[in-house]
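Appendix B. Worked example

We walk through a single record from start to finish. Start with the input: the chain for Chromosomal replication initiator protein DnaA, Yoonia litorea, length 445.
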Amino acid sequence: MTNDVWAEVLSTLKGALGKSNYSNWIEPLEFAQLEDGVATFHVPTNFIGNYVSQNFGDQILYQLNKSGHEARRLSFRVPSKARKTAQVKPTVKVTKSDDDKGAQLDSRFTFDTFVVGKPNELAHAAARRVAEGGPVSFNPLFLYGGVGLGKTHLMHAIAHELKLRSPELNVLYLSAEQFMYRFITALRERKMMDFKQLFRSVDVLMVDDVQFIAGKDSTQEEFFHTFNTLVDGQKQIIISADRAPGEIKDLEERIKSRLQCGLVVDLHPTDYELRLGILQSKVEVYAAQYPELVIADGVLEFLAHRISTNVRVLEGALTRLFAFASLVGREITLELTQDCLSDVLKASDRKVTVEEIQRKVSEHYNIRLSDMIGPKRLRTYARPRQIAMYLAKQMTSRSLPEIGRRFGGRDHTTVMHGVKRIEELMAKDSQISDDLELLRRALQE
Ligand SMILES: Nc1ncnc2c1ncn2[C@@H]1O[C@H](COP(=O)(O)OP(=O)(O)OP(=O)(O)O)[C@@H](O)[C@H]1O
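Next comes the structure step. The output line below is what the pipeline stores for this chain.
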């Protein structure tokens, strides 16, 4: 985009935003470039950048697109010279790009492509907050959840956003496995000083799948010291794992407790609406790739309903479906979907029974199966019973009277009350939601 076009956009903005907004906020912007859908502006201070982004960002994007320039996002940077003159206290050391030091970031994993629904809204909000930079508010941010629910996607999105907003930040993203590998290599090559220097000089450290270091003593030790040094230096740490810190077996207690010090948020298993939203957003991408293909009504709903394991499986199914339909040159109908994905659909159909649920829940709470089903009303038995009723309602297609019958011939209103009680408790008692999550996963294995 040339400066002429920006000048044109400016004059429209002047009319749209009013004189005083224009001179206070828009005039100080200096257009830098438009690349890959990101329009970058130089601003005298971060404050101006943030304010413009929050208050006039949509307007600017709208006007840019209206004038024929495809812009999806805005980025505001303080050029290093302006930084000095504006006396903005630098919070970070200026370093070179770190792409060579960390793992490769997937360019598709951005906030734009992350579909938000009830099960992941808290994790998404926390990730966004960290990605916006500013003072470190929760450290570490600990994201956890089952396989393929978007942890890596969110971490990459944070890294992309941070690099965009503050290119001078030294952001290092890597898996816990890579951390260990680097540590071992450093030990072998007697380069521990370099290792320490590298990890202690970052502004933001992101470690994916931290459960990997559990049981690996020296790696845990080194991780612990790296963690402490960075937290002491007010550097942001973002960690992901497949379960909550307290649930990671063979992870040292002192690490568990450090990991719990910040904000721990989980990505819950997807619900129907989220799965449908994800499918719809992926179909838009495929539609551009396979413009000749038509997808019949009801196919996405069918997939969202039937494939509830994880998003990766859902995505894989869609990719296969489009590839197959393009190969045979046919419309994507329900029939074609069932033919093409019969194995995936069968695997997703694993049925959980009420009896399996009762067994798992009684094992988890260490009570006898007969006490779960029997008449005892003590809370020690009643609570696990209600949890099992809740899971039976969620995970099986049994009706309330059928569930009641399997719990020692109880009435359907008792089941209804139990389910409601657990729903209430989940909202205020994180122990209950954690237990449910663990049980749900164990039952799906
Ligand atoms: N909410 C979402 N919106 C869009 N895509 C999503 C969402 N959640 C997951 N995905 C996609 O699903 C796939 C798996 O996600 P990701 O790799 O982030 O999972 P993960 O939680 O890190 O899994 P693992 O435990 O196996 O490492 C990715 O392609 C990701 O883009």
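Two observations about the output. Strands lie at 30-35, 38-42, 73-77, 141-145, 171-175, 204-208, 236-241, 263-267. The pocket of adenosine-5'-triphosphate is lined by residues 109, 113-115, 120, 145, 147-153, 209, 242, 278, 311-312, 315 (CB under 6 Å).
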